[in-house]
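Much of the work behind modern protein science is quiet bookkeeping, done one molecule at a time. The protein below has been through that process, and both of its lines are reproduced in full.


***
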Amino acid sequence: MRTTSTYGAVMREVTSTPAPAPSSSNSIEASKDGWRMAKARVMEFMEANSGMLLILLSQLFNSLMYFSVKILNQLDIPVPALEIIAIRMIITYIFCMLYTNIMKIPDPFLGPKGVRLLLVCRGVTGFFGLFGPYYALRYLSLADTTVLTFLSPMVTGVVGHLIMKESYSIRQALASLCSLSGVVLIARPPFLFGNSLSGNEGSDDSPANATPEERLVAVAIALVGVFGITGAYISMRAVGKRAHPMHSITYFSLWCIVVSSTSMVVMKIPVVYPTNWQWAAMLLMVGVFGFSSQTLLTMGLQRETAARGSMTIYVQVVYAVILEGVFFGTLPSLFSIIGAAIIIASAIYVILTKQAQSKPSTKVSLDSEDAALEEGLLENRDSDSSDGARETEDMGSAAGPLVSPHDPEIRAEGLRN
């Protein structure tokens, strides 16, 4: 009894003793573990969506390039569109050649042998994708041209699914439609909203002297540009990582230089020379921002499907609204704010609902020699087991019929013994 009471007293003393407070070292370790987990999650997210993040950054540089072009058009002597294309692509081509020679990338001029035809296709279709909107702006308003150009992500998703068998879910198609509706709210084309709500009333944005036939041709050329953009994206996806991004940009820039320069000569468009440092600085920025945009876009499409990658291009409109508000003091309207919110929400939705890639099977795949060896071992094991069973059967038949130990006669014999 005394032992029991002593044991109870000790247990009461132990249970009543408060637990020691966690030390500062434990709390520091816990915070470090939490930081590591958060960092690991961020890195996992960035790795899973690296392609879309690169394309998002490329559209920022693309918007900065168009911002520089807009400043060039506000100078005393506006620069022709073909001249801007030629100078931009000359700067891009020089950067490509410098990078490929410094980094000693193989086949800097023609690219790898297996993808040269695809690189040519990327250059040709990319030029038409660039030329379509420029031509359409001669007879259509900026808003109408913008809406027509941003049909390309939807077309790219469908063509990528049909030709390259890439996934294009109904959710992605609905998100693309929502983004296009956001572009419509920001651009507010006159053929949908009229001049009173489109913001084009009293402006020279929409050419008034264009005939219906010229407008129809402009719409057709803009749609050709849409398919040109689609062809460029599909070509880059088909090339993938079989060629360096500089190879794709080299073909694109070289083709644009040849066609734009030839067009200026044929159409007798005079060359506008720089008259001040701002002119030269903006033209240099057009080339630098254009090169950065093309590089990041090519790297992103190497890592992302054509449907998801082209969806991200809608964010360019949001960048444009922000840049106009910051540098030109243009306050966005309610329609623009709603449209920008729809585009951002659609982009976030596509990123967060990325279909999880199928996990690799835990079954180890064998090469042909190992598989043949394993199959031979299995056959030998089966033949050995069948031979063993056959030998047992022969031994049993030679010794007579097998007798069960539960036979009544054996049990009785055992009892007598």
User: Anything to note?
Assistant: The longest helix spans residues 368-399. Residues 200-205, 355-384, 389-417 have pLDDT under 50 and may be disordered. The CA atoms of residues 290 and 347 lie 23 Å apart. The chain has 17 helices and no strands.
